[in-house]
Design a protein that fits this description.
Elements (H helix, E strand, L loop, with lengths): L1 H19 L3 E10 L3 H8 L5 H4 L1 H5 L4 E5 L8 E5 L6 E10 L3 E10 L3 E12 L2 E11 L13 H22 L1
Antiparallel strand pairs: 1-7, 2-3, 3-4, 4-5, 5-6, 6-7
Amino acid sequence: MIFLYILGAIVAIVVILAIAAPKNYNVSRSITINKARSEVFPYIRYVKNQDNWSPWKKKDSNMKQEFIGNDGDVGFVSKWEGNKQVGTGQQEIVEILDGRTLRTKLTFLKPWESQSDAYITCSDEGSGTKVEWGFSGRHKVPANIFMLFMNMDKAVGKDFNEGLAELKSILESN
């Protein structure tokens, strides 16, 4: 009988945590690049260029990559299979608002399955360009319980800052 009470308490705790835990996430960072948007966006629109500034490429320089379609066009897919730090997944261009926004669908298969909507936006800021890089999505129950113990903004935000700083360096040096 005590076992049933303990089991019931555990189930109740899991249900309460699943209800209370965050289900949505949105992480983004931005930087201003001292170049005109007309010079910045043409570089950003090509997903393969992310290999030059993405912090994840640095975490596994030996990752296997496959590209399907025409880079810079809607429907282009970049697939990767890497170490534990980068996992396995794919990124597909789903929308391009020329000169302003690149939207992609990120699908992670390992180390855990998830799907996110990613974006890079460019807007005029003075004589430069403000670049915002981010992603958003929804955690499924019960996986959302783990988000009570992990701060997604801090975990991924650091990588976004690093990548944007590298992007700025590349674009401003040309």
